[in-house]
Amino acid sequence: MRKLILLLVSCLWAISLQAQEHLKFKGVPIDGTLQEFVQKMKAKGFTSVGMQCGIAVLKGDFAGAKECTIGVGTLQGNNLVSKISVAFPEASNWLELYGRYCDLKEMLTEKYGSPSNCIEEFQRSYQPQDDADRFYEAKSDRCKFITTFSPSTGDIELRIAHGDYKCFVILSYFDGYNSYIVRKKAMDDL
After folding, report:
1. CA angle 62, 132, 87 (to 5 degrees)
2. What are phi and psi of 120, to 5 degrees?
3. Average pLDDT across the chain, whole number
4. Mean pLDDT, to the nearest integer, of 19-35?
């Protein structure tokens, strides 16, 4: 009897996972092969730029911002799309950088509910006194502004980032179901 109950619970669990929805980007489920997903993004108006380190790179407008760079990634060792990242255009000052971060955070909160985690701090013993100081701290990688949303379909991370002494906002989508599939496959190997 106990084996029958365990089998029934396992079957119900598998059925519920099969019915699991994928996180969506621009209304398109984050699923399928890299080539299939890139084609769907082209149909949404993005332009393919090429591949860099196994990541498909596209350009286009997103969430009211022009000329964003979009990276489409797959799970390691698998051609299953699992992550989309949008790098918004470089900001020229703190008000622009922080304003974009706050606008996106507000829209994401409206769509997905309260964040599951939010860290917004400068990483020095003193706090910057003005916007020029704040922008300098951001360019110097001494500010940590990360907000995470965790809908049932995956995770969404909004953050202030920098590179080559430039500052910008990055919004990343991580599909939960495809990550689970690959993890389950790895667990089966153990």
Report:
1. 20
2. -140, 95
3. 87
4. 88
